[in-house]
Amino acid sequence: MKSILDFNRARQAGRPIVMVTAYDAAMARLVAVSEADVILVGDSAAMVVHGLPSTVHATLDMMVMHTAAVRRGAPEHVIVADLPFLSFRQGREVAVRAAGALLQAGATAVKLEGVTGHEDVIAHLVGSGIPVMGHLGLTPQSVNQLGGYRLQGRSEAEAARLRAEAGRLEELGAFSLVLECVPAALAAEITASLAITTIGIGAGNGTSGQVLVLNDLLGLDAGFRPRFARRYLDGHAAILTALNDYARDVRGARFPAREEVLA
Ligand SMILES: Nc1nc(=O)c2c([nH]1)NC[C@@H]1CN(c3ccc(C(=O)N[C@@H](CCC(=O)O)C(=O)O)cc3)CN21
Ligand SMILES: CC(C)C(=O)C(=O)O
Ligand SMILES: [Mg+2]
């Protein structure tokens, strides 16, 4: 996809939107030549790339660096970058500066979690020419409040709140929103009630598109296996085999071979 207008074009054409994360130029180059539509520079980078315990630890500097690297690897794609924890909860000026830094690093749009309490910030970003993607349901930046990564919107009260927040995001001018870990029927109902697109993760197949963390779909982490994260590759095993082949070749004096010696 070349612009955010392609989100609604895809929905109108009945084509599911394919979103995947990337954090560096090498992976972005791969995604750019794949059939995936959109790249998310997720704040999951804090966990996946930096080994930090949660996305609470993502910083603006970190997100700017990853966004710039991904833009170099994918010059033509729509890139959505996550606004890090608290960067949109300290008033309009701080938020617009953070979002501006992400756009100047190469993002096409920003994503932010939740809506209640920062409605004015969302409207101000949109009014400033910054496309905003919302993120509802399981909002990982609130993990310390949610008490873990669990399905959201199970009670009727929670479902009603999610419906209202999704409608509010559309009213405030968000062009799309992520629904993370919510019941499939609720995600489908919210999608049908909105004119803007929804991108699901752990939210069933009734959304306008899907998003997965690249490392998850490549199976790079042997330990992280939530039910929604289908593995298209056992990357952990494949890479481990390559590494051990290399180690054995060095120890067995099979590497480097004659043609690999510069002389
Ligand atoms: N590598 C990675 N992939 C992600 O999808 C991801 C991150 N990191 N970091 C930020 C958040 C955290 N996310 C998570 C993390 C764990 C579960 C999880 O363990 N889910 C279980 C239990 C569900 C439940 O109890 O309702 C599952 O089996 O799906 C879900 C989403 C999604 N995001
Ligand atoms: C899981 C997706 C939606 C995300 O926000 C991230 O990767 O940070
Ligand atoms: Mg995120």
Task: Spell out the blueprint of helices and strands.
Layout: H1 5-12, E1 17-21, H2 25-32, E2 38-41, H3 45-48, H4 60-73, E3 79-82, H5 92-105, E4 109-113, H6 119-127, E5 132-137, H7 143-146, H8 156-172, E6 176-180, H9 184-193, E7 197-201, E8 209-212, H10 214-217, H11 235-251
Parallel strand pairs: 1-2, 1-8, 2-3, 3-4, 4-5, 5-6, 6-7, 7-8
Helix pairs in contact: 2-4, 4-5, 5-6
The structure holds 5,10-methenyl-6,7,8-trihydrofolic acid, 3-methyl-2-oxobutanoic acid (KIV) and magnesium ion.
Active site: 180
GO molecular function, one term: methyltransferase activity
Protein name: 3-methyl-2-oxobutanoate hydroxymethyltransferase
Task: Offer a concise description of the structure.
With 263 residues, the chain is α/β, with parallel strands linked by helices. The chain has helices spanning 5-12, 25-32, 45-48, 60-73, 92-105, 119-127, 143-146, 156-172, 184-193, 214-217, 235-251, and strands spanning 17-21, 38-41, 79-82, 109-113, 132-137, 176-180, 197-201, 209-212. Helix 5 packs across helix 6 (119-127).
For the secondary structure, the number of strands is 8
* SSE order, one letter for each helix or strand: HEHEHHEHEHEHHEHEEHH
Mean pLDDT: 98
| Shape verdict | globular
By secondary-structure content and strand pairing, the structural class works out as alpha/beta
Counted by DSSP, the helix tally is: 11
CATH topology of the largest domain: TIM Barrel
Helical percent range? 40-55%
Q: For the largest beta sheet, what order do the strands appear in spatially?
A: 1-2-3-4-5-6-7-8
**What's the CATH superfamily of the largest domain, by name?**
Phosphoenolpyruvate-binding domains
End-to-end separation in angstroms reads 46 Å
Please summarize the sheet with the most strands.
Answer: 8 strands, parallel, barrel
CATH architecture of the largest domain: Alpha-Beta Barrel
Strand content: 5-15%
**Text of the CATH class of the largest domain:** Alpha Beta
Radius of gyration: 20 Å
- Which kinds of small molecule does this entry bind, naming each only once? 5,10-methenyl-6,7,8-trihydrofolic acid, 3-methyl-2-oxobutanoic acid, magnesium ion
Whole-number total of structural domains? 2
Unreliable sequence segments: none
EC number: 2.1.2.11
Protein name: 3-methyl-2-oxobutanoate hydroxymethyltransferase
Organism: Lacunisphaera limnophila
InterPro entries: Pantoate_hydroxy_MeTrfase, Pyrv/PenolPyrv_kinase-like_dom, Pyrv_kinase-like_dom_sf
